[in-house]
Design a protein that fits this description.
The chain is of the alpha+beta class and 313 residues long. It contains 10 helices and 10 strands. Helix content is 45%, strand content 15%. The chain is globular, with a radius of gyration of 20 Å. It starts with a helix and ends in an 8-residue tail after the last helix.
Protein backbone atom coordinates (compact mmCIF):
# COMPACT_ATOMS: atom_id res chain seq x y z
CA UNK A 1 0.00 0.00 0.00
CA UNK A 2 2.85 2.41 0.82
CA UNK A 3 4.27 1.95 -2.68
CA UNK A 4 0.85 2.68 -4.19
CA UNK A 5 0.56 5.85 -2.08
CA UNK A 6 4.01 6.96 -3.23
CA UNK A 7 3.03 6.55 -6.88
CA UNK A 8 -0.31 8.32 -6.43
CA UNK A 9 1.20 11.30 -4.60
CA UNK A 10 3.81 11.73 -7.33
CA UNK A 11 1.05 11.49 -9.92
CA UNK A 12 -1.28 14.04 -8.31
CA UNK A 13 1.11 16.55 -6.72
CA UNK A 14 3.97 18.77 -7.96
CA UNK A 15 6.55 16.87 -5.89
CA UNK A 16 9.15 14.22 -6.53
CA UNK A 17 8.85 11.85 -3.59
CA UNK A 18 11.29 8.99 -3.14
CA UNK A 19 9.93 7.43 0.03
CA UNK A 20 6.68 7.23 2.02
CA UNK A 21 6.46 5.92 5.58
CA UNK A 22 3.37 5.33 7.71
CA UNK A 23 3.18 7.46 10.87
CA UNK A 24 -0.39 6.47 11.77
CA UNK A 25 -3.17 4.78 9.81
CA UNK A 26 -3.96 8.15 8.26
CA UNK A 27 -0.69 10.14 8.28
CA UNK A 28 2.34 9.44 6.11
CA UNK A 29 5.80 10.98 6.18
CA UNK A 30 6.99 11.67 2.65
CA UNK A 31 10.65 12.14 1.71
CA UNK A 32 11.90 14.06 -1.33
CA UNK A 33 15.24 15.50 -2.37
CA UNK A 34 13.95 18.92 -1.27
CA UNK A 35 12.87 17.81 2.20
CA UNK A 36 9.88 16.28 3.97
CA UNK A 37 6.13 16.47 3.54
CA UNK A 38 3.22 14.87 5.34
CA UNK A 39 0.22 13.34 3.61
CA UNK A 40 -3.10 12.82 5.35
CA UNK A 41 -5.14 10.13 3.62
CA UNK A 42 -8.50 9.48 5.25
CA UNK A 43 -12.27 9.60 4.94
CA UNK A 44 -12.58 10.29 8.68
CA UNK A 45 -14.45 13.44 7.73
CA UNK A 46 -16.37 14.34 4.58
CA UNK A 47 -14.92 16.29 1.66
CA UNK A 48 -16.78 19.45 2.71
CA UNK A 49 -15.56 19.19 6.32
CA UNK A 50 -11.96 18.60 5.29
CA UNK A 51 -12.04 21.42 2.74
CA UNK A 52 -13.41 23.86 5.32
CA UNK A 53 -10.78 22.73 7.84
CA UNK A 54 -7.94 23.17 5.33
CA UNK A 55 -9.20 26.59 4.23
CA UNK A 56 -9.21 27.57 7.91
CA UNK A 57 -5.68 26.32 8.61
CA UNK A 58 -4.31 27.88 5.41
CA UNK A 59 -5.82 31.17 6.59
CA UNK A 60 -4.09 30.77 9.96
CA UNK A 61 -0.78 30.11 8.21
CA UNK A 62 -1.12 33.20 6.00
CA UNK A 63 -1.84 35.24 9.13
CA UNK A 64 1.46 34.13 10.64
CA UNK A 65 0.44 31.30 12.98
CA UNK A 66 2.74 28.28 13.13
CA UNK A 67 0.61 25.71 11.32
CA UNK A 68 1.30 23.45 8.34
CA UNK A 69 0.46 24.97 4.94
CA UNK A 70 -0.97 22.70 2.28
CA UNK A 71 0.30 21.99 -1.21
CA UNK A 72 -2.35 22.08 -3.93
CA UNK A 73 -2.57 19.13 -6.29
CA UNK A 74 -1.84 19.43 -9.99
CA UNK A 75 -5.62 19.79 -10.37
CA UNK A 76 -5.52 22.86 -8.11
CA UNK A 77 -7.21 21.11 -5.17
CA UNK A 78 -6.15 21.44 -1.52
CA UNK A 79 -8.23 18.33 -0.78
CA UNK A 80 -7.74 15.79 -3.57
CA UNK A 81 -9.80 12.68 -4.27
CA UNK A 82 -7.67 9.66 -5.15
CA UNK A 83 -8.49 6.00 -5.68
CA UNK A 84 -6.56 3.75 -3.31
CA UNK A 85 -7.24 0.04 -3.35
CA UNK A 86 -10.41 0.48 -5.45
CA UNK A 87 -11.75 3.01 -2.94
CA UNK A 88 -12.01 6.79 -3.30
CA UNK A 89 -10.22 8.50 -0.44
CA UNK A 90 -9.41 12.11 0.43
CA UNK A 91 -5.82 13.34 0.50
CA UNK A 92 -4.15 16.49 1.84
CA UNK A 93 -0.43 17.14 1.39
CA UNK A 94 1.29 19.39 3.95
CA UNK A 95 4.59 21.14 4.31
CA UNK A 96 5.98 20.43 7.79
CA UNK A 97 5.98 22.90 10.67
CA UNK A 98 9.56 23.58 11.88
CA UNK A 99 10.42 22.11 15.25
CA UNK A 100 10.46 18.91 17.28
CA UNK A 101 8.52 17.37 20.14
CA UNK A 102 9.96 18.45 23.47
CA UNK A 103 11.04 15.93 26.05
CA UNK A 104 8.54 15.64 28.91
CA UNK A 105 10.74 17.42 31.43
CA UNK A 106 11.16 20.43 29.10
CA UNK A 107 7.52 21.50 29.38
CA UNK A 108 8.18 24.19 31.96
CA UNK A 109 6.23 27.35 32.76
CA UNK A 110 8.16 29.46 30.21
CA UNK A 111 7.34 27.16 27.30
CA UNK A 112 3.74 26.77 28.43
CA UNK A 113 3.36 30.55 28.68
CA UNK A 114 4.41 30.78 25.03
CA UNK A 115 1.91 28.04 24.23
CA UNK A 116 -0.81 30.09 25.94
CA UNK A 117 0.19 33.09 23.85
CA UNK A 118 -0.04 31.08 20.63
CA UNK A 119 -3.45 29.70 21.61
CA UNK A 120 -4.60 33.27 22.28
CA UNK A 121 -3.37 34.26 18.82
CA UNK A 122 -5.10 31.22 17.31
CA UNK A 123 -8.45 32.22 18.83
CA UNK A 124 -8.03 35.85 17.86
CA UNK A 125 -7.42 34.77 14.26
CA UNK A 126 -10.32 32.31 14.44
CA UNK A 127 -12.65 35.20 15.28
CA UNK A 128 -11.27 37.11 12.30
CA UNK A 129 -11.79 34.08 10.04
CA UNK A 130 -15.39 33.66 11.15
CA UNK A 131 -16.10 37.34 10.48
CA UNK A 132 -15.00 36.77 6.88
CA UNK A 133 -16.16 33.20 6.21
CA UNK A 134 -19.36 31.43 7.13
CA UNK A 135 -18.55 28.10 8.79
CA UNK A 136 -21.00 25.56 7.42
CA UNK A 137 -19.50 22.08 7.78
CA UNK A 138 -17.25 22.01 10.87
CA UNK A 139 -19.41 20.74 13.72
CA UNK A 140 -20.28 22.18 17.07
CA UNK A 141 -18.50 20.02 19.64
CA UNK A 142 -21.62 18.35 21.04
CA UNK A 143 -22.64 17.11 17.58
CA UNK A 144 -19.49 15.01 17.23
CA UNK A 145 -19.84 11.30 17.96
CA UNK A 146 -16.94 11.39 20.42
CA UNK A 147 -19.09 13.39 22.85
CA UNK A 148 -21.89 10.79 22.90
CA UNK A 149 -20.67 9.69 26.32
CA UNK A 150 -23.83 7.90 27.38
CA UNK A 151 -23.71 5.77 24.23
CA UNK A 152 -20.30 4.34 25.12
CA UNK A 153 -19.84 4.45 28.91
CA UNK A 154 -21.34 1.17 30.26
CA UNK A 155 -24.81 1.41 31.81
CA UNK A 156 -23.62 -0.25 35.03
CA UNK A 157 -21.20 2.62 35.66
CA UNK A 158 -23.98 4.74 37.09
CA UNK A 159 -21.86 7.28 38.99
CA UNK A 160 -19.68 8.06 35.94
CA UNK A 161 -22.70 8.31 33.64
CA UNK A 162 -24.39 10.72 36.06
CA UNK A 163 -21.22 12.81 36.18
CA UNK A 164 -20.93 12.80 32.38
CA UNK A 165 -24.57 13.82 31.99
CA UNK A 166 -24.16 16.66 34.48
CA UNK A 167 -20.95 17.98 32.86
CA UNK A 168 -22.48 17.87 29.36
CA UNK A 169 -25.66 19.62 30.45
CA UNK A 170 -23.80 22.29 32.43
CA UNK A 171 -21.53 23.16 29.49
CA UNK A 172 -24.33 23.11 26.93
CA UNK A 173 -26.23 25.62 29.08
CA UNK A 174 -23.36 28.15 29.19
CA UNK A 175 -24.45 31.21 27.14
CA UNK A 176 -22.47 31.35 23.87
CA UNK A 177 -21.23 34.54 22.23
CA UNK A 178 -18.54 35.67 19.80
CA UNK A 179 -16.05 36.27 22.61
CA UNK A 180 -16.19 32.84 24.26
CA UNK A 181 -17.16 30.39 21.50
CA UNK A 182 -15.91 29.62 18.01
CA UNK A 183 -13.47 27.63 15.87
CA UNK A 184 -10.56 26.07 17.73
CA UNK A 185 -8.00 23.29 17.45
CA UNK A 186 -9.85 20.92 19.78
CA UNK A 187 -6.99 18.48 20.43
CA UNK A 188 -4.02 20.46 21.73
CA UNK A 189 -2.20 17.62 23.41
CA UNK A 190 1.45 18.49 23.92
CA UNK A 191 2.20 15.85 21.27
CA UNK A 192 0.53 18.19 18.75
CA UNK A 193 2.93 21.04 19.57
CA UNK A 194 6.36 21.40 17.92
CA UNK A 195 9.11 23.69 19.20
CA UNK A 196 12.09 24.95 17.16
CA UNK A 197 15.53 26.08 18.35
CA UNK A 198 14.29 29.65 18.92
CA UNK A 199 11.31 28.33 20.96
CA UNK A 200 8.82 29.22 18.25
CA UNK A 201 5.80 26.95 18.59
CA UNK A 202 3.92 25.17 15.82
CA UNK A 203 0.57 23.41 16.00
CA UNK A 204 -0.25 20.28 14.01
CA UNK A 205 -3.21 17.93 13.52
CA UNK A 206 -6.25 20.16 13.14
CA UNK A 207 -8.34 17.17 12.08
CA UNK A 208 -10.48 17.46 15.21
CA UNK A 209 -11.05 21.21 14.94
CA UNK A 210 -14.57 22.11 16.00
CA UNK A 211 -16.73 24.91 17.28
CA UNK A 212 -16.42 24.95 21.06
CA UNK A 213 -15.87 27.24 24.00
CA UNK A 214 -12.39 28.70 23.52
CA UNK A 215 -11.37 27.73 27.04
CA UNK A 216 -11.41 24.08 25.97
CA UNK A 217 -8.18 24.74 24.01
CA UNK A 218 -6.62 25.81 27.32
CA UNK A 219 -8.01 22.87 29.27
CA UNK A 220 -6.53 20.25 26.93
CA UNK A 221 -2.82 21.17 27.20
CA UNK A 222 -3.13 21.68 30.97
CA UNK A 223 -4.72 18.23 31.21
CA UNK A 224 -2.06 16.80 28.89
CA UNK A 225 0.82 18.29 30.90
CA UNK A 226 -0.54 16.96 34.20
CA UNK A 227 -1.20 13.51 32.77
CA UNK A 228 2.03 13.01 30.86
CA UNK A 229 4.65 15.70 31.41
CA UNK A 230 5.06 15.95 35.19
CA UNK A 231 8.26 14.01 35.93
CA UNK A 232 8.53 14.50 39.67
CA UNK A 233 11.01 16.57 41.60
CA UNK A 234 8.30 18.54 43.37
CA UNK A 235 4.60 18.78 44.04
CA UNK A 236 2.22 17.96 41.18
CA UNK A 237 -0.28 20.37 42.74
CA UNK A 238 2.27 23.17 42.53
CA UNK A 239 3.16 22.12 38.98
CA UNK A 240 -0.53 22.32 38.07
CA UNK A 241 -0.79 25.81 39.53
CA UNK A 242 2.35 26.99 37.73
CA UNK A 243 1.43 25.72 34.28
CA UNK A 244 -2.17 26.94 34.55
CA UNK A 245 -0.97 30.40 35.58
CA UNK A 246 1.62 30.43 32.78
CA UNK A 247 -0.80 29.37 30.03
CA UNK A 248 -3.43 31.91 31.09
CA UNK A 249 -0.87 34.73 31.35
CA UNK A 250 0.40 33.95 27.86
CA UNK A 251 -3.14 33.74 26.48
CA UNK A 252 -4.09 37.14 27.88
CA UNK A 253 -1.19 38.74 26.01
CA UNK A 254 -2.95 37.91 22.74
CA UNK A 255 -6.64 37.57 23.51
CA UNK A 256 -9.25 38.33 26.17
CA UNK A 257 -11.08 35.78 28.25
CA UNK A 258 -13.63 36.57 30.93
CA UNK A 259 -13.17 35.76 34.59
CA UNK A 260 -16.43 33.80 34.42
CA UNK A 261 -14.97 31.46 31.79
CA UNK A 262 -11.69 31.12 33.67
CA UNK A 263 -13.64 30.02 36.74
CA UNK A 264 -15.08 27.23 34.59
CA UNK A 265 -11.65 25.85 33.62
CA UNK A 266 -11.92 22.86 36.03
CA UNK A 267 -15.27 21.99 34.43
CA UNK A 268 -13.69 21.81 30.97
CA UNK A 269 -10.78 19.76 32.29
CA UNK A 270 -13.36 17.35 33.68
CA UNK A 271 -15.03 17.27 30.25
CA UNK A 272 -11.70 16.29 28.71
CA UNK A 273 -11.17 13.57 31.30
CA UNK A 274 -14.59 12.03 30.64
CA UNK A 275 -13.97 12.42 26.89
CA UNK A 276 -10.78 10.34 27.14
CA UNK A 277 -12.51 7.66 29.23
CA UNK A 278 -15.41 7.45 26.77
CA UNK A 279 -12.96 7.10 23.84
CA UNK A 280 -11.49 4.01 25.51
CA UNK A 281 -14.93 2.38 25.42
CA UNK A 282 -15.56 3.68 21.91
CA UNK A 283 -12.36 2.41 20.27
CA UNK A 284 -10.71 -0.27 22.41
CA UNK A 285 -11.62 -3.92 21.84
CA UNK A 286 -13.01 -4.96 25.20
CA UNK A 287 -12.42 -8.63 24.43
CA UNK A 288 -8.70 -8.05 23.77
CA UNK A 289 -7.61 -5.39 26.24
CA UNK A 290 -3.90 -5.36 27.05
CA UNK A 291 -2.72 -5.19 30.64
CA UNK A 292 -1.74 -1.56 30.08
CA UNK A 293 -5.20 -0.71 28.71
CA UNK A 294 -6.87 -2.38 31.69
CA UNK A 295 -4.62 -0.43 34.06
CA UNK A 296 -5.37 2.89 32.36
CA UNK A 297 -9.12 2.23 32.20
CA UNK A 298 -9.27 1.26 35.88
CA UNK A 299 -7.26 4.34 36.83
CA UNK A 300 -9.73 6.59 35.01
CA UNK A 301 -12.72 4.68 36.38
CA UNK A 302 -11.62 5.09 39.99
CA UNK A 303 -10.81 8.77 39.52
CA UNK A 304 -14.13 9.55 37.84
CA UNK A 305 -16.23 7.50 40.26
CA UNK A 306 -14.74 9.52 43.11
CA UNK A 307 -15.07 12.72 41.03
CA UNK A 308 -11.43 13.43 41.80
CA UNK A 309 -10.32 16.87 40.59
CA UNK A 310 -7.07 17.29 38.68
CA UNK A 311 -5.05 19.93 40.57
CA UNK A 312 -4.79 23.33 38.83
CA UNK A 313 -5.49 25.78 41.69
Amino acid sequence: MVQEILELLNKFYPVNLIKVESVTNEMFRCTSDEGYYFARITNYKSFDEQLEEVNYTNFLHKEGLGVSPTISSLNGNVVEKITLGHKEILTVLYKPVPGVHLQRNQWNANVLKELGRQIGKLHRLSKKYERIHRVRYINDWHDNEEYAFLKYIPKEEVAIRDLAKDVLLTIKNIPKNDTNYGLLHGDLWLENILVDNDFNLGMVDFQDCEKHFYIFDLAVPIYSALEYSFVGGGSIVEYGRQITKAIIEGYLEENDISSEMLERLPLFIKLKEIFEYSLMHMYWNKEKLTEEQIRIMNHYRMRLEQNHSIPIT
